Amino acid sequence: DGMGNLRVTKKGIRLEGISEFLLPLYVKEIHSRKDSPLVLQSDRNVTVNARNHMGQLTGQLTVGADAVEALCKRFEVRASEGGKVLFSADEDEIVIGADRLKVTGTEGAVFGHSVETPHIRAEPSQDLKLESPTRSLVMEAPRGVQVNAAAGDLKATCRKELHLQSTEGEV
C-alpha cells in the first residue's frame, strides 16, 4: 500500500504532505490536487531538465535566488488566452509580439545598430525625441519618411549642418 506519505494507487503513486527527495526524481507527470498549488522548494535553486531519447540535455529551467535561467534552443512566453507569442528568443533573434512595446526607463531605448519600424510615437502629452549624441541620425525609407507634429512644434537641431535632400522633388 505504501509507506508514510507515499501511497501506491491504480493511477501511479500518490504523495501527501511535505516530502524530501535526496536524489534525482524521474517522473512522467506531476500533478497537485485540484484545490492546491504544486510547490517545489529548495535551499539553493530548483532545476527542471528535459532530455531526448538518448539522455542528452535539450532544455533546462533553473529558478534561483538571483535569476531565472532558461537553457534551450528557443524560449517563448505566450498569452494565457489564445496562446499568442508575446516574447520569443533564439540564437538568431528576439521577437516581441505584443501589440505595443513600452520602454519606461528614464534614458529611453538605446540601440546598437539600426532600427526598423513603421511607427514611433510618444505617450500622450509627452515629447518624442530621436537623438544620436555622437553620430548622425539617418531616417530613410523606400517610399518616403513622414514626420508629423499634429499638436505642437517640430524642432530639428544639430551642431554643424542640417541637410534636407530631395532626389526628385522639392524641399
UniProtKB/TrEMBL annotation:
Pfam families: Sarcoglycan_1. GO terms for cellular component: cytoskeleton; sarcoglycan complex; sarcolemma. It comes from the Eukaryota. It is a single-pass type II membrane protein. GO terms for biological process: cardiac muscle tissue development; heart contraction. The keyword Cytoplasm applies. It is found in: Cell membrane, Sarcolemma; Cytoplasm, Cytoskeleton. Keywords: Cell membrane, Cytoplasm, Cytoskeleton, Disulfide bond, Glycoprotein, Membrane, Signal-anchor, Transmembrane, Transmembrane helix. InterPro entries: Sarcoglycan, Sarcoglycan_gamma/delta/zeta. PANTHER family: SARCOGLYCAN (PTHR12939), ZETA-SARCOGLYCAN (PTHR12939:SF5). Belongs to the sarcoglycan beta/delta/gamma/zeta family. This is SGCZ protein. It comes from Circaetus pectoralis (black-chested snake-eagle). The gene is Sgcz.
